[in-house]
Amino acid sequence: MALPRPLPTDPLAEAKRQWLAHGWTDAADGMTVVTSVMRAQQLLLARVDAALKPFGLSFARFEVLRLLAFSRAGRLPLSSVVARLQVHATTVTSTAERLVRDGLIRREPHPHDGRAAMLSLTEDGRALVERATTALNSEVFSRPGMSSTDAADLVAIVARLRKDAGDFAEPRPQPDPL
Q1: Which residues pair with 108 in a beta bridge?
Q2: Which CATH architecture has domain 56-163?
Q3: Which residues form the HTH marR-type domain (predicted)?
């Protein structure tokens, strides 16, 4: 698939110009921030999707597998997966059902809470997430498209935005958030 040719001008700069021309001066910078971050997310997600496609994984499926692989026993309560991934329980449940169907995880009863479920990584799931992680590391994460300094600055800025939005609270979890 051929990459699209770059546009001759930045459409977000033009959008900001239009915002200013229409007298929305107090909102122009915020509109530019929001649309810039959303466009960057689209660009990064396209790279992630391309890296994960050979493994038949979406980023949501990868995140569940990777989280389980990071856990000591390769299993976590469904509620912990929901909390750590910061997505709605319905989304995790749906993703988990597809992973179960594909033999990558098992859904098991919680040993102490009859109403809760445990998600457990299978050997096939562990092998797949390791291969997918290697691909993501080499194709996306090791070269995110900016310098190390810019990456650290961006992560710090976004962390402040997330903290101010209530994404996490003080005291800071250990290790410190990026």
Answers
A1: 118
A2: Orthogonal Bundle (1.10)
A3: 30-163
- Contact at 8 Å (CB) between 95 and 68? no
Instruction: Give me the residues paired with residue 107 across strands.
Output: 119
Handedness of CA 74, 97, 167, 153 (dihedral sign): positive
Cα–Cα distance for residue pair 156/159, rounded to 1 Å: 5
Identify any residues that bridge with 121 across adjacent strands, giving them in sequence order.
105
Q: Which secondary structure element, helix H or strand E, spans residue 57, and what is its range?
A: none
Reported pTM: 0.86
Which tens digit of pLDDT belongs to each residue from 60-110?
Answer: 999 999 999 999 999 999 999 999 999 999 999 999 999 999 999 999 988
Strand partners, 109: 117
Boundaries of every domain in the chain: 56-163
In order, the DSSP letters of 59-83 are HHHHHHHHHHHHSSSSEEEHHHHHH
CA-to-CA separations, 107 to 65, 87, 101, 121, 138, in angstroms, rounded: 13, 18, 10, 9, 31
